[in-house]
Structures are given as structure tokens and as C-alpha cells.
Amino acid sequence: MEPWAERVYRRAGPAYLRAIRAAAKAISALPRSAITACGAILAGIAVILALTAGGVTAHSSVTAGAGQARPPGVIPRGVTAGKPGSFSGIVLPDLLIVKPSGLTSSDMAGLRAIRGVRKMISFDGAQITVAGQPASVIGVSPDQFRSWVPLRAASDQSLWTRLAIGDFIASSPAAAQLGLTSGASYRLTARSAAEISYGGSAGLDIAGVDLLVNRAVSSKLGLVHKVAALISAPGPSIATLKARVHELLGASARVVDLRAQRHGPPSRAIQPAQIASYLQLFQASAAKYCPAMSWTVLAAIGQIESADGQNMGPSSAGALGPMQFMPATWAAWGIDGFGPPGPPDIMNPFDAVPSAARMLCADGASSGTQAGLRQAIFAYNHADWYVNEVLALAAQYAAGYHA
């Protein structure tokens, strides 16, 4: 394995989406009177903006020549390219906060200052029409938002590159319903208009959101700025968090408890289609291929080796994929795991993570002892400092997730 010291890594893994999906039902029941001009309702992570007269309404139609696909990576005129999206770390969201008038800089600073808040992200949004059909759009930072979608979508690097350079992307159902053509240009009009190329679709599983644009395009279109936020604050009680948020933002803010919506770890019998995040993949892989080993060890190795798929290699030593296997090691230990039938794919996390669990188990983790676990991690990367790094990060995951 490639030494951790040769790469730059982040300390947390990607997000756990399943914990927040069920919140869509709770917030979608809010009364329509709560939506003001330029206001929004978030369902789960999703923004659904129902705008009154004078609010932002975007209309879209296919432009002349829309059937001519733009080559991937070509940046539309007037759009500033961003960096390709990357995973920003495992985050368990505790509260969803919606402020119909938009969160100010002071609001954001105040939310971050609440005791116990570790992470926070915010969204722009608006209700638009595409070819005469209604659709909702949110404006996101790809490098942050990518962590909040299902693993298969998050692993599609080309999709996030297209979003980062200024294309819009769609949920799979919205793409089918709206008849979108990849590479075609669509005119989106809000407070201003822009010709935006369609970059593709994925199973985003974000209730109520049809389209995503990056922040630069959101600003160009004039979407409602920072209409909602998610915060992760695992320490304080939900009652305490809600009270602090309402003290800061007032009664008009909508606050939804996401902590109560969390699901337990997947069982050994989980189906591949049910795995929506790296967190679930680590849990399922440990449960099936090395039940004596905590999933937090896999999570720590995945984070240290590749920042959970951000650095897929090849490394300077030739290691590849999210778990940074050397090709010769992969030839001995690679299995198709939760991946599709066929030869194991070193680059596919659904193969790589179960393979790592299997190898660790054979190298000593099956003993269920600390000595056996240290032996297995040392076999993965022959360095005592690496073993200590993995165990320290695994302990952080265990504390944060009560594993």
C-alpha cells in the first residue's frame, strides 16, 4: 500500500444520506402559507421553491442547435469553471434549517458558532420551468454537495466535473420526464438568463430536487441565495440545538430533526442496490466479510488511502482505487463483493472495500483481538505509524457514530 505521508488526506469520510431521506415527509407537510416571495421549503436535503408574484421564476427552453452536443470539459461562454467535486467527509446531519428570506452572513456565522456544531453546508434554490414543465433547481458547491448523494452517483467523476465547469445535472427521473438530451443547451431564465449545457443525470435520491447547478451558475441566474442549511452537531441534544437556532433566526425559521431519522447499520443480507454511501459500504463489507472487525477500521483505511475515492491513483508506487491496492495484491485478493458480476474492478468501491475487508480478516482481524487487528493493518501497509493512524481515526469514527 502507498504510505499515507505521500498524499494529502481529509480526516472524515463522505456523508451518510439515508439518515436524512425520511425527513422529506416531515417538512413537505409544512403549510404553503409559510412560503414567501423568494422563499423555499426543503424536503430532506431537497429545496422545493414555490414562489409568489415577484419571486424568482426561471423558464427554460432548448436553444437553436441544442441537439449539437458540447464536448465534455468545454466551458460555456461566460461561465467560470470550478474545481471537480470531491468528497468532503463523513457527515451525519442533525438539523435541517430553512429560512424563507435566505440566510445572511450573520446567520451563517451564528449557526457555526453554536456550541457543538462541527460542519454546515448551505444551498441556493428556485422553482423553474424546463420546456414548459415545472422543475426545481438548487445551487451547490460540487466539492461539498457530492458527499450528500448516493455512492454510485458520488463515484461518477465525469458527472461532477461537468457540474463544476458550469453544466447542470439532473436526477434520473427528472431527466426522463423532461426529455433532456446530454450535451444540449437549455436557456434558463431567472433574474437573468443563461444558456446552460446539460451534463447528465444520476440517481441523486434527493426528494423534490430535479436539477443541480454550481454556485457560479446559481449566481448568474439569480437563485434564492442560501435559503437552507444542514448542520452536524453530534454532541448537544436536539432540543438544545433547536432552541439555539430559533434564538438566532427567529420563529420564521423551519427546523427539522434529522438525527431521529437515522437508520442502523446495514445487515449482512443487505442488497447492493440499498448501499447509498461509503458509510453503508464500510458497514456492509465488514458485516459480510469480516464480522469480527469493526467497520470503523475500513472507514479509516478508506479515508487515509484515498479520501474515500477522491484520490484513485495510480500512486507513485502504482497503487489504484479507493482502497489503494497494488495490482499484484489485487490479483490475489480482489473479489466482486457488492459490485456487478464479472471480473473484480480495482477502481470500483463496491469491489474494493469488500476485498479490503476480506484481506484484513485473513491477515489477523478475524481474531477479534487488538493484537490481531494491529497485525492485519500492518500487513495492509508495513508501518507502525500507519497502524496508529488507522486505529486513531477508527476511534474517532467510533466515537462520532457510537459504533
Brief summary of the model shown:
This protein is 34% helix and 18% strand. The chain has helices spanning 18-21, 23-28, 105-113, 142-145, 151-154, 157-165, 172-178, 215-221, 238-249, 278-289, 295-306, 327-333, 349-362, 370-380, 384-401; strands at residues 41-43, 46-48, 57-62, 95-98, 119-130, 133-140, 168-171, 185-189, 193-202, 211-214, 224-232, 254-257.
Question: Can you characterise this structure?
Answer:
- By secondary structure, this protein is α+β, with helices and mostly antiparallel strands.
- The strands form 2 sheets. The chain has a 7-stranded mixed beta barrel.
- The two termini are 26 Å apart.
- Strand 8 and strand 9 (193-202) form a beta hairpin.
- It contains 15 helices and 12 strands.
- Helix 13 (349-362) packs across helix 14.
- The model is unreliable at 1-89 and 263-267 (pLDDT under 50).
- The longest helix has 18 residues, at 384-401.
- It folds into 2 domains: 4-12 and 264-401, Lysozyme; 18-261, no CATH class.
* Secondary structure: helix percent: 25-40%
What fraction of residues sit in β-strands?
15-25%
Report mean pLDDT, rounded to a whole number. 74
Report the count of strand segments: 12
Distance between the termini: 26 Å
Classify the secondary structure makeup into a structural class.
alpha+beta
Shape: globular
The radius of gyration computed from the alpha-carbon positions, rounded to a whole number of angstroms, is 22 Å
Sheet bearing the most strands, described? Answer: 7 strands, mixed, barrel
Poorly predicted residue ranges: 1-89, 263-267
Q: Can you tell me the number of structural domains?
A: 2
